[in-house]
Design a protein that fits this description.
Elements lengths: L4 E7 L5 H12 L2 E4 H14 L7 H9 L14 H10 L3 H16 L7 E6 L2 H5 L5 E6 L2 H14 L6 H17 L12 E4 L5 H23 L3
Parallel strand pairs: 1-3, 1-4, 2-3, 4-5
């Protein structure tokens, strides 16, 4: 069985990594997985059952019940779900349950696709340390907060931008400080700072950074 090609896209909240990962998957015809949605779906399962994300046994049960088909549910994009997702992501037993799902996706992309693009916080360091190409996406916290605030405003959700910034900073600290699989740039990941880039410019840069490695892996896969 020919090995699937894997692009790992890690980065901070609201840095643009999800949008870039989707565009990369479309460009190469690879399967796409937003690993963050798995934790958000876990959080949604908890909240729907009025359980607390801090309760490990409930969080693990919620992770085992995750249905990826629900990833398009707009409810998982709320700030409340995001906060709860960050909490459950810090539970080692939850990460263990979802780690298997992510690795299976990378090894056997759905639809028989030749590769997979997975975005998250620990894809290049823990989930797929042998990924063919690794990208770490970041931007200034104030820029990321403004982007998230604009997204919320467009969705009709009224909030103060300073509160969004506080949330971003809190999530950064939690993601970087957790004991298991903290947010950290893999030594072999290339850094993409999107602070002053719009999405088209950021995608062009991302393609330039990971393209050579992906093209090399495709040649090997095709036997040439």
């Amino acid at each position: 069985m020919t090995r699937a090609i894997v692009i790992a896209v890690d980065g901070t909240a609201a840095s643009g990594k999800g949008t870039l990962a989707k565009r990369l998957s479309n460009h190469y015809g690879f399967a796409y997985l937003d690993s963050g949605s798995l934790y958000r779906l876990t959080a949604l399962n908890l909240i729907e059952k009025a359980k607390l994300p801090e309760n490990e046994s409930d969080a693990v049960a919620a992770a085992r019940a995750v249905d990826p088909a629900r990833a398009s549910n707009p409810a998982i994009r709320s700030d409340a779900i995001g906060q709860a997702a960050s909490l459950v992501a810090a539970v080692p037993a939850v990460r263990a349950v979802l780690l298997d799902f992510q690795r299976n996706f990378a090894a056997r992309p759905p639809g028989g696709e030749p590769g997979a693009v997975i975005d998250g916080r620990d894809i290049g360091t823990v989930v797929c340390p042998a990924a063919d190409a690794k990208l770490f996406v970041d931007a200034r916290a104030e820029t990321r907060a403004h982007r998230r605030w604009m997204e919320l405003k467009a969705a009709g959700i009224a909030t103060d931008e300073s509160l969004v910034l506080a949330d971003i900073l809190e999530r950064d600290a939690r993601d970087r400080g957790r004991a298991v699989a903290p947010l950290v740039r893999a030594p072999d990941a290339v850094l993409l700072d999107t602070t002053v880039l719009d999405i088209d410019a950021a995608f062009a840069e991302a393609l330039a950074l990971v393209g050579p490695k992906v093209e090399e892996a495709l040649k090997v896969r095709q036997g040439g």
